[in-house]
Amino acid sequence: MTFLKPGQTIYYRACKSCNKKVTGDEGTGYSCQSCKKTPAECNLRYILSAKFTSATGGAWITAFGDDAEKIIGCSADELDHTRAHGDGSSYQTQLNKATWAPHLLRLMVATQQYKNEKKQKITAKAVTPVDYAGESKFLLDKISTMTS
Ligand SMILES: [Zn+2]
Questions:
Q1: Which residue range forms the structural domain that includes residue 28?
Q2: Which residue among 1, 16, 54, 91 is buried most deeply as judged by most CB within 10 Å?
Q3: Cα-Cα-Cα-Cα dihedral sign, residues 92, 98, 100, 105
Q4: How confident is the model at residue 6 (pLDDT cuts 50, 70, 90)?
Q5: How far, in Å, from the CA of 82 to the mean position of ligand 1?
Q6: CATH number of residue 88's parent domain
Q7: Separation of 17 CA from ligand 1 center, angstroms?
Q8: Distance (Å, rounded) from C-alpha 47 to C-alpha 35?
């Protein structure tokens, strides 16, 4: 991840059964339109849309839930707690720490039609730390097949 728009919301209150966004708040109670239920509790779930850059280029990629958690480095609940109780800088520090941290992403690319315009939607499906030893071996194996 190389760029995260400052001040953007990167998580939402999600229904524990279906992960859809719930309406309402702690005071009035939550309500899930999809399940037609009013759950007593809900989860904070990441919806992270940020710019990611590789050696060959960059793209805007969206990551959800656990995958986004691996990129940010803490759960959405923890991040929300930091934002609510921290001095403001600790929240930003967490996001800054996550920026430029290398990850290996498996991506799903879907093309969507939007107002006669084709748009590419890229979603991160698996996020893992970069395995430098494994990646180097992969490259060395590739190089050895080129020379032989
Ligand atoms: Zn639901």
A1: 11-147
A2: 1
A3: negative
A4: confident
A5: 26
A6: 2.40.50.140
A7: 5
A8: 20
